[in-house]
Design a protein that fits this description.
The chain is an alpha/beta fold. It folds into 2 domains: 174 residues, Aspartate Aminotransferase, domain 1; 250 residues, Type I PLP-dependent aspartate aminotransferase-like (Major domain) (Aspartate Aminotransferase, domain 2). Helices cover 40% and strands 13% of the residues. The chain has a 5-stranded mixed beta sheet, with helices on both faces. The termini are far apart. Bound molecules: ligand F0G. Ligand F0G binds next to helix 4 and helix 5.
Length: 455
């Protein structure tokens, strides 16, 4: 088989400043070893997130010029709505400025004290929006998801048995809806199978509980179904996407991922009463229902992005580039979460750095070293992010990972070869890495602003 090439050529370039190790060592010290505090221009390869970082196509840039900025009744909304409905045939489509705004509105309606909202794994903003209303967010991933080294084709699946047990135990009146995150970002970017979506939907509907997909990476999930699930190899991604959404009653979406846009999102649903309430809330914080916190030109970019993201040449390249990085790291012996997910490679810092205890933040130590050594910026997902408890104590997170999230259509294979070299070189010197301590932290969400020092 021939090399899977980037299915595009480059029309505009953005220069990267080729910093030296000495410069980076100084800059990260000035940033108190917090990668969120760095100027982005001081990063060589930025793998902090795949969200809002995609490169737009020439068709998207052209579509921006057609943006109609009318307060009400913009034709850009019509094009956006049609593009969304082609994939996700829900009755009501409500644009928001990004995914979490859709979550905020949905849970303001459905949440509240005493309510419990299950998911395979809630993303942090989803969990925070649920808990903010006084409701409880519960993660019910399959057992296999707890073992980073264990291979499973659909490690994002939900434990259907535990879901049914939860609904029975609480009674459906306490479960206003069930979520399913496709792909499961917090669980390593792992896909959910069609069989699992169907089974979750059956359980939900037996008890009258609506099912909502957190659809951020729906196209990547659909492509994994095509590659891995029996019976789907010859189905088009468009058909697979439509089938995925046919089992759901609504979705929240961040267009910053599989919308191939730099901003945007939506809430889509079938229930008319909820849609009415959602539009009222939308006007309070986002805007009128035909723009919802976005410019008309953003709606145009998303409409085109949704056509491009289900292109199978694009998806083949997209999934291949993530797998490529993962495969080379595995071959070099670097411990990573397996199998490799859709949008990111997750390095297992706890396994790589056994001499650094979790409360000395192995993930942070590794992320800092990747930056100093090669200018690669990843993101700690571990004890820094989750270790501080609401009672003020601190305990190790379930895992200490560093996520290398790959922006869509931004980097080439040689950029990825460079990333692999940087990770492998750091891995080879792993015994020299030192633990870290926090010298200052805010009361909540400490990972964004905490200050660190070496032990
Ligand atoms: N759901 C999932 C699964 C996500 O990954 C994100 C964002 C959101 C919801 C919220 O969407 O950012 O548009 O408000 N994830 C980004 C990330 C931030 O880096 O993984 P948003």
């Amino acid at each position: 088989m021939k090399t899977i090439i980037e299915p595009f050529r480059i029309k505009t370039v953005e220069p990267i400043y080729m910093s030296s190790r000495e410069e980076r060592a100084r800059w990260i010290e000035e940033a108190y070893y917090n990668l969120f505090a760095l100027d982005a221009e001081r990063v060589l390869i930025d793998l902090l997130t795949d969200s809002g970082t995609a490169a737009m196509s020439s068709r998207q840039w052209a579509a921006l010029m057609q943006g109609d900025e009318s307060y009400a009744g913009s034709p850009s909304f019509d094009r956006f709505e049609e593009a969304v409905r082609r994939l996700m045939p829900f009755r009501f489509i409500i644009p928001t400025h990004q995914g979490r705004a859709a979550e905020k509105i949905l849970f303001s309606i459905a949440g509240g004290p005493g309510k419990v909202i299950p998911s395979n794994t809630h993303f942090d903003t989803t969990r925070a929006n649920i808990e903010f209303t006084g409701a409880e967010a519960v993660d019910l991933p399959i057992e296999e998801a707890s073992y980073p080294e264990l291979e499973h084709p659909f490690k994002g699946n939900m434990d259907v048995g535990r879901l049914e047990e939860l609904i029975r135990r609480l009674g459906p009146e306490r479960v206003p809806l069930c979520m399913l995150t496709v792909t499961n970002n917090s669980g390593g970017g792992q896909p959910v199978s069609m069989a699992n979506i169907r089974a979750v939907s059956e359980v939900c509907h037996r008890y009258g509980v609506p099912l909502f997909l957190d659809a951020c990476r729906f196209a990547e999930n659909a492509y994994f179904i095509k590659l891995r699930e029996p019976g789907y190899a010859d189905r088009s991604v468009l058909e697979i996407v439509r089938e995925m959404f046919s089992y759901a009653d609504g979705c929240t979406m961040s267009a910053k991922k599989d919308g191939l846009a730099n901003i945007g999102g939506w809430l889509a649903l079938n229930d008319e009463a909820w849609a009415q309430q959602a539009r009222t809330l939308l006007i309070l914080t986002e805007g009128f229902p035909t723009y919802g916190g976005l410019a008309g030109r953003d709606l145009e970019a998303i409409a085109v992005g949704l056509e491009e993201v289900i292109d199978e040449d694009y998806l083949r390249y997209r999934i291949a580039s993530t797998q490529y990085v993962g495969r080379h790291l595995i071959e070099a012996g670097v411990p990573i979460v397996r199998p490799v997910g859709g949008h990111a490679v997750y390095l297992d810092a706890r396994a790589m750095l056994p001499h650094i205890p979790p409360l000395q933040y192995p993930g942070q130590a590794l992320a800092v070293e990747l930056y100093v050594h090669g200018g690669v910026r990843g993101c700690e997902i571990g004890t820094v992010m989750f270790g501080r408890q609401s009672d003020g104590s601190e305990k190790p997170a379930r895992m200490d990972l560093v996520r290398l999230a790959i922006p869509r259509r931004v980097y080439t294979q040689s950029h990825m070869d460079y990333v692999i070299e940087v990770v492998v070189e750091v891995y080879e010197r792993r015994h020299q890495l030192r633990g870290m301590r926090i010298v200052w932290e805010p009361p909540v969400l400490r990972h964004f602003t905490a200050r660190f020092a070496y032990r």
